[in-house]
Design brief:
With about 325 residues, this protein is an alpha/beta fold. A hairpin with a 5-residue loop joins strand 2 and strand 3. Helix 5 packs antiparallel against helix 8.
């Protein structure tokens, strides 16, 4: 590593912000969490991130000035060289110079990449990826993000936006807003579909789990209902998992990938049942048969994947 000083790693999602002080031996030694609240606007989000950095540093018994830098993974299309968020649907940001703006607030160099890129990088270096040379990461959360490692390195592509599997089209003939993998299979989509079906008088244990307040249905609610054998929840989750598997299978077929890591809030909540269902769908839909050997695994680093990956990328870019 280029420095013996800690860095802060940040996972900026559409719903939550995870912040961690990472020591040079790759341990999270202080952390903080904030709600993203993108509806309040860009500046409010940046202020909460800066406050979270101070809180995480206090938990690590150090000052922000003792860091050597900040790495942050942000959702959507990112230019990692300039630190600009080109387009983030979940945040409703366009052309936001995140590195510059956050650096001005915390007085530290800031390095920005896509949120799933950093999580996938963290998993590959320290978790479920096991330093695979060719790997696809798919993160199921507010939306669906993806990250690619090819020949041992993060792959960005010509326009620096590679990996956006969530925005690939599954159903081109249906109305806008329902066509993509993300529209159908993200945590938001799964919850929305379950809620809509319950309101259409489909039976489920979920209303009793949230005292009738369907706005309180979260990933953990879905996971518990699934584990309880709730028929409606199983139908919706399994259908989403099958579609996710098809989307991944297309990437495995095209790039001959040997390993896939699933992460994000929905994966963490549902665990092995979701991973196994996706794995079966991937293997049923790849070509040629040799690609059925692809390993599909769940995250090991959980919430820390993005934090650790962002920290690793910050250290490397300070070389």
């Amino acid at each position: 590593m280029p420095s013996v000083k800690p860095v802060v790693g940040i996972d900026l999602g559409g719903t939550n912000v995870q912040i961690g002080v990472v020591s040079p031996d790759k341990k999270v030694v202080g952390s903080a969490k904030r709600k993203t609240k993108p509806d309040e606007g860009r500046d409010a989000v940046l202020t909460r991130i800066a406050e979270g950095i101070e809180e995480a540093c206090a938990a690590a018994k150090m000052k922000v000035s003792e860091l050597c830098g900040v790495g942050i993974g942000a959702p959507g299309a990112i230019d990692p060289e300039t630190g600009v968020v080109l387009e983030a649907v979940n945040l409703r940001w366009n052309e936001v110079p995140l590195a510059k703006l956050l650096s001005e607030k915390v007085k530290q160099p800031v390095f920005v990449d896509n949120d799933v890129n950093v999580a996938v990088y963290g998993e590959n270096k320290l978790g479920a990826g096991e330093n695979a040379r060719d790997l696809l990461g798919v993160w199921l959360g507010t939306g669906i993000g993806g990250g690619l490692i090819l020949n041992g390195e993060l792959y960005y592509g010509t326009f620096k936006t590679a990996g956006e599997i969530g925005h690939t089209i599954l159903f081109p003939g249906i109305p806008l807003g329902s066509r993509s993998l993300e529209h159908n299979c993200s945590r938001s989509a799964v919850v929305d579909r379950i809620v809509r079906l319950i309101k259409a008088n489909r039976k489920s244990v979920i209303p009793s789990m949230v005292d009738g307040d369907l706005s309180e249905v979260k990933s953990k609610t879905v996971a518990k209902a699934y584990q309880m054998g709730d028929e409606l929840t199983i139908q919706v989750v399994d259908h989403a998992a099958d579609l996710i598997g098809i989307g991944i299978a297309n990437m495995v077929t095209m790039l001959s990938l040997g390993r896939v890591v699933l992460g994000g809030g929905l994966t963490e909540a549902l665990g092995e049942p979701l991973v196994d269902r996706v794995k079966k769908s991937v293997r049923a839909n790849v070509f040629p048969d040799k690609c059925k050997q692809v390993k599909v695994v769940g995250t090991k680093l959980l919430d820390d994947a993005g934090v650790l990956g962002a920290a690793l990328i910050a250290w490397e870019r300070m070389k």
